[in-house]
TrEMBL record:
It comes from the Eukaryota. GO terms for molecular function: calcium-dependent cysteine-type endopeptidase activity. Residues 13-319 form the Calpain catalytic domain. The active site is at 107, 265, 290. Coiled coil: none annotated. One of its GO terms (biological process) is proteolysis. The lineage of its organism: Eukaryota, Metazoa, Chordata, Craniata, Vertebrata. This is Calpain catalytic domain-containing protein.
Amino acid sequence: MVTIEMTAEKHDLFEDPSFTADDSALFSDYTTPLSRLTGKVTWLRPEDSIIMLPLAHSKSAGKNLRVGYEQKTTEVFIFAQQISKSPCLFPDDYADAYPKQGILGDCWLLCACTMLLKNRYLLNQVMPPGQCVWGQSGYTGQFRFQFWRNGHWTEIQIDDRLPCIKDTPCFSRCQSPMAFWVALLEKAYAKLHGSYERLWAGQVCEAVVDLSGGVAERWSLKKSLNTPGGRSVFSELSQEMRKQSYISCCVHEAPTGAPEQGQFHALSVMEWKAVKTIAGAQVQLLQIHNPWGRRCWEGAWTESAVKVSVQQKSVGGEWKMASVSGCWTVGTTAGGGRNFPSHGQNPHVPLIVTYDPGGTNVSVTLRQHSPENTLHAIGFHIYKVIGEADCMVISGTVCPVVSCVPHAHSQEVSVQCRLASADYVILPSTYQPDCSAEYTLTIMQKIPR
């Protein structure tokens, strides 16, 4: 291979040195079905790039190139192979902009990508507008993305070389073969995680947070369609929430006669309606979008079809939000769970609820900054302050008013509750004491109208 250094005027295209177009970007430990692609992937840009090389170097320029000679010269024009004749970030018809899953098991990420099509503000936050694309004079083959990580937006820069098999992107893409926003975002997210293979299997709620900077909540519907409070989930999803929230669902097993839903597969909830059967019974129906992008399931609404989990992400509305970053330090603030006498040594985060005498809706999310392969079991307890907060001693005999337990080996855990007007203190913790880690605690309070 020949390394080519040229000026921007001569179509020198950016090549990311920290996420190179080879197997190191594809694989981490070769433990997923993705490892079967070893040696079968070529990296192509969406559009032709035209460069000029000395004739003597043309044979070493690579087999995926088209070559043209100019008469009476010792130079040769190299046309790098392309994916599309007229690529764009987004198609004219937004219906063609929806993600379509490839051979990578990252449906959880694609559900979060669907959220961006619903919210232009978030889309511009993740994909800053004004970037030069194919066909524009300032195009350099470089794109910028931003992801919310550990309490702040983190910028990721990539080049536009995409992994392909037979000139077609082998991972996620848009319904339109000319649109590339999904493929580029997926590459940037893979770089954030270390490789494409690291995206194999994940949680929708984690991707939703990374693409919004908000808070995700999970409701389990496996046993019934009621929340822990006994009220129907769907009656709580108001018109305000329809506009300002994103809902996804996940099937934990393939319903009988519905192979299109798959097993452990994530889907986007587009709409929901309450209808009555001929017998007069009321039924809740979900309109779901499958990132496989092949067809819609048209089978019956069987009982097993409602065994799903729902993640609800609040992206707007009258909420007051505050984030606090901290750390558990061995020997001082890493006190462990309530069953350890050192529990009271954990960080004390004050919470003052003043809005509504009848109680205020509060959502608390704890996110640890540890790498995915070294996650601690985390949770938190909320205690009502008795007397002065600075003098309050928390021991095993003091009962919390709200708990997010059992501790879970997750990137983040959350709970939504209703608290009376009072002073509280939140104790985030790992389950085992003396576990060193950093965290971010996000507190949202609903402001009454």
